[in-house]
Amino acid sequence: MNIYDTVDCPYCGYENDMSHALTDGLSDDNKLDWECQKCDEEFEVTVEFEPSYSADKIVYHECDKCGTKTRNIYKRGMVFPFPESLEGKSFCKSCWAEAYLKECEKGSNIKL
């Protein structure tokens, strides 16, 4: 849905502006009740989403501690809190979690 979407009232045919229709969220069945901006009759609107696709190369990063190649890297300066005991900049989830848990167990002051 873009800001120019409209739906015609099934009672009077008025073209209702739907640009703010999803501000309160949407039910699991993609339907919402709407009151016509002209005749004040309430009607049901079904929201349809068209698929949109894009592609990117898969980028693998090497963990500075164990050398594992992973798509999900934890980088110093990008993840908070970050364990002070880790030497390097980029780590796999396992190495980050292990260091974080050890510092939590020691009661270390992990910088937030």
Short description:
This protein is an alpha+beta fold and 112 residues long. The protein is built from one helix and eight strands. The protein folds into two domains: 6-46, no CATH class; 61-106, no CATH class.
| Total of DSSP H or I helical runs spanning 4+ residues | 1
Provide the succession of SSEs.
EEEEEEEEH
Q: What is the number of independent domains?
A: 2
Helix content percent band: 10-25%
Q: In terms of structural class, how would the helical and strand content be classed? A: alpha+beta
Report on the structure:
With 112 residues, the protein is α+β, with helices and mostly antiparallel strands. The chain has 2 domains: 6-46, no CATH class; 61-106, no CATH class. Helix content is 12%, strand content 21%. The protein has 1 helix and 8 strands; from the N terminus they run E-E-E-E-E-E-E-E-H. It has one helix at 93-106, and strands spanning 6-8, 15-17, 31-35, 42-46, 61-62, 69-70, 74-75, 90-91. The chain has a two-stranded antiparallel ribbon with strand order 1-2. A two-stranded antiparallel sheet has the order 3-4. Strand 1 (6-8) and strand 2 form a beta hairpin. The two termini are 39 Å apart. The model has no long low-confidence stretch (mean pLDDT 88).
